UniProtKB/TrEMBL annotation, chain A:
It is found in: Nucleus. This is DNA replication complex GINS protein PSF2. GO terms for biological process: chromosome segregation; DNA replication; double-strand break repair via break-induced replication. Belongs to the GINS2/PSF2 family. Component of the GINS complex. GO terms for cellular component: GINS complex. Pfam families: PSF2_N, Sld5. The keyword Membrane does not apply. It comes from Coprinellus micaceus. PANTHER family: DNA REPLICATION COMPLEX GINS PROTEIN PSF2 (PTHR12772:SF0).
From TrEMBL, chain B:
The GINS complex plays an essential role in the initiation of DNA replication. Coiled coil: none annotated. Its main location: nucleus. It comes from Coprinellus micaceus. SUPFAM superfamilies: GINS helical bundle-like, PriA/YqbF domain. This is DNA replication complex GINS protein PSF3.
Length: 183, 191
């Protein structure tokens, strides 16, 4: 296969970011735009100052050109994330309920639109804490690895992508050395 | 590492020698033992590589004992603390302890085989967590800085990994490095 090893079994974080950017997000446009057709669909019209829903990639693009303000999704604020973090700590066996692509979306928004978010530094540190708490749990899950199945419900897309290569390889190894006991 | 005809790892793993006791006399095959005899006498012990021993044992011309890398001493050491055993020492350069063990397991009777399988599975599970931890720690430092960092215990664990474990270590380290790089990327530079 012509792909390098790290691309054969998993997706790159940049690709996941691109996929996540197709989600719709609300913005307050600063310019007017007619209903325009794009490959993925028609968006607009944009009539400032009323809000509009656009795909994230377009919102980021407009924001970088200073043509809109992005409105944070309802889970990206301090109270909500603090609540989730408390849930993570309280339940050592389960993962808390976070949007599937929260890691990618939050990284993009903190990067581009930190002035539109309240308390970006606190958000960053909360997200980091969440990531570390969840990583510790998936490490626990690694201890209970079986050759046939492992349940880690509630993991987000970036976390799955991160652990996929070595989890799958470990399960392969376990399958090979466990085979005899089943025949 | 499976019974894949073309797998380089499988071929290397098969090159390990095990000791076989011949049950019959075999004329004109003395060169297998590496010595100068012309024939193999009955009950003589020879060290044969796995790929040869496999056929001979299946055809019931010889018997073999469980070789030293899987003997009692190693078993007890693994039971005591799986991460402290240096698997790469047991099977020589580029060690394939798990691969070798799997091949032996295929030749044993059910009861002995499931004992071996359990020993290997427990050893693997015990070591894999430490393995992944170290890999993620190393992702932050990068390949060049591996020399001076980490305590002696960690460094000797890494040296004692067998080939299959090294593969997993590389996968985990690469994955963690990519994640870190992505997190530090910024779109603001692009316009």
């Amino acid at each position: 296969m012509a792909l390098p090893v790290h691309l054969r079994d998993s997706v790159t974080p940049q690709e996941l970011e691109m996929i996540a950017c197709q989600q719709l997000i609300e913005i307050v446009p600063l310019i007017a735009m007619e209903k325009t057709a794009f490959i993925s669909g028609a968006y607009g019209p944009l009539r400032p100052p009323s809000k509009a829903k656009l795909p994230l990639w377009m919102a980021v693009n407009l924001k970088l050109k200073k043509k809109c303000h992005i409105i944070a999704p309802d889970w990206l604020n301090v109270e909500h994330l603090q609540d989730r973090l408390a849930q993570e700590v309280a339940k050592p066996d389960a993962f808390s309920d976070l949007p599937f692509r929260f890691s990618e979306i939050s990284k993009v928004l903190l990067d581009v639109a930190s002035d539109d978010l309240e308390n970006p530094d606190q958000l960053r540190s909360l997200l980091k804490d969440l990531r570390e708490a969840r990583q510790a749990k998936s490490r626990e899950g690694l201890k209970h690895l079986d050759h046939s199945e492992l349940g880690l419900t509630g993991l987000s897309s970036m976390e799955i992508n991160e652990i996929r290569p070595f989890f799958v390889q470990s399960m392969n190894v376990l399958t090979k050395i466990a085979r005899s006991s089943e025949t | 590492m499976e019974n894949d005809y073309f797998s380089v790892e499988a071929i290397l793993a098969e090159n390990q020698k095990i000791q076989c006791t011949f049950k019959h006399e075999i004329p004109n095959m003395g060169h297998l033992g590496g010595g100068t005899e012309r024939d193999i006498a009955i009950l003589s012990k020879l060290q044969l590589p796995m790929w040869l021993a496999y056929v001979i044992i299946y055809s019931d011309w010889a018997e073999f004992n469980i070789p030293q890398p899987f003997g009692l001493k190693v078993r007890n050491a693994l039971k005591a603390e799986a991460t402290s055993v240096r698997l790469s020492n047991l099977v020589g350069a580029g060690g394939m302890w798990y691969g070798f063990g799997k091949m032996i397991m295929d030749m044993l009777s059910d009861e002995q085989a499931s004992e071996m399988s359990e020993m290997m599975t427990k050893a693997f599970k015990g070591r894999v967590v430490e393995l992944v931890d170290q890999a993620q720690h190393f992702a932050a430092i990068g390949p060049g800085g591996a020399g001076g960092s980490g305590s002696d215990v960690a460094a000797s664990f890494r040296e004692g990994l067998d080939a299959t474990e090294r593969e997993i270590f590389t996968l985990a380290q690469a994955s963690a490095k990519r994640m870190k790089k992505w997190h530090e990327e910024s779109d603001k530079a692009k316009q």
